[in-house]
Amino acid sequence: MNKTEKALLQLTGRALFGTPADFEPSAVDWSALYHEASNQALSLLIWDTLSDEERGSVPDDVGIRWEQDSFRHIMNNEQLLYEQEQVIQLLTAASIPCVILKGSSSAANYPQPSLRIMGDIDLLVRPEQQMEAVKALQANGYGDVLDEKHHCHMTLHKDEIAVEVHKEPNGLFLDGNSEILGRIRNYFSDAIDRRQFMDGLPVPSDEHQAIILILHKLEHFTTSGLGLRQLCDWAVFVEKKMDDTLWAKLQPQLSAFGLLTFTGLMTRACVDYLRLPEENAPWAMRYDSETAQKVIDQILKEGNFGRKVEKYGERLFNDPYSSNRVTSFIKVLGSACREHWPPCEKHAVLMPAAPFVLLGRYLIQRQRGERPRLNLKKKYQQAGHDQKLYKELKPFVAERGN
């Protein structure tokens, strides 16, 4: 962890929990810190928390870009909130109840909700009403579905705004532990019925919201990359919502769902590096600090949605539910063949040819500049570290609570 990353973590802790930042402003590389905050989708939050002395130390060119970037995020947040209200009213008029996933439901737990950068609008509806909701949106200006075959959501766009209509939360992988995933899906069967309202917005119950946040973090941590903004979402939820009563309800569920160790390590990382007060999560302190450091190091290495590293092809060798890199390669390659060359899904005899079809497509796309260079040897070596860490997180492995 370098000086810039340490300063970013200290400033994040100040913005979220009012803890002091122990560094000399003149010693900070503010250009690097702005770049790092942007990569972690925290530039607006960090700019707001800077003191007059700290802003005075920021070079003029960096300060201008940072301030303009912050203004752009504020305007984008306001636009998304306006469109979100319109979408909810539209679905309500169509008798399609929904809840907001992530986004503004997470922002509500921040000291200043407007400082949490939003990306799109995520809504959960009853599974049997997903297509009905999609059609209602399409009838009101939203375009064609972009990911119709996605296991949990369909995405529609209007101009620059994306709306994801979920039939279940993110993170319930089709190739995970089917028994445990069945339990989790059943747990969310009454999510709409148990929704609550915050400032008029429909959001999940606190119990459901906790599981939704953890599932979302686990998915990104083991696939596209988990950023500090997503870790902040969990930290402020714990600080604002997680009392002894809620934890007593969640602990057996997390144990049964195989999410307890991951939750504990994420929370320990929040305490150690974001300065979440320990009294808000005493149960997290029994989890290994060294493993929590590996978690934060991974987050700092990858950035929000993995924007700091090239992730293309990485999943081939680091599937979190495979025993090793070779079995991961076989499993993920087979899944990719069925997804990207549908004929082999219907005709198993074509499966041996499918990898060569995908390779041919990749070479053509690579020649056109549409795909990055894929170094399988490098990806294989990197995946060794990732798979070792994933095993320590015990995803979707039922365990006894403590």
Q: Which short descriptors sum up this protein?
A:
402 residues; alpha+beta; 4-stranded mixed beta sheet; two-stranded antiparallel sheet; 17 helices; 6 strands; 7% strand
Mean pLDDT: 85
Strand content: 5-15%
Number of helix segments?
A: 17
- Which sequence of strands runs across the widest sheet? 1-2-4-3
Shape: globular
Sheet with most strands: 4 strands, mixed
> Which H/E pattern describes the elements?
HHHHHEHEHEEHEEHHHHHHHHH
Number of strands: 6
The residue ranges in which pLDDT falls below 50 over 5 or more consecutive positions are none
Structural class: alpha+beta
Helical residues, percent: 40-55%
* N/C terminus separation: 31 Å
Using only CA atoms, what is the Rg? 22 Å
Walkthrough of the structure:
With 402 residues, the chain is of the alpha+beta class. It is built from 17 helices and 6 strands. It has helices at 3-17, 30-39, 43-49, 52-57, 60-93, 103-107, 130-138, 178-187, 206-222, 228-241, 244-257, 260-273, 289-302, 325-340, 343-346, 354-367, 376-393, and strands at 98-101, 121-125, 153-158, 161-166, 196-198, 201-203. The strands form 2 sheets. A 4-stranded mixed β-sheet has the order 1-2-4-3. The protein has a two-stranded antiparallel ribbon with strand order 5-6. Helix 12 crosses helix 13. The longest helix is centred in the N-terminal third of the chain and has 34 residues, at 60-93. The radius of gyration is 22 Å and the shape is globular. The protein starts with a helix and ends in a 9-residue tail after the last helix. The model has no long low-confidence stretch (mean pLDDT 85).
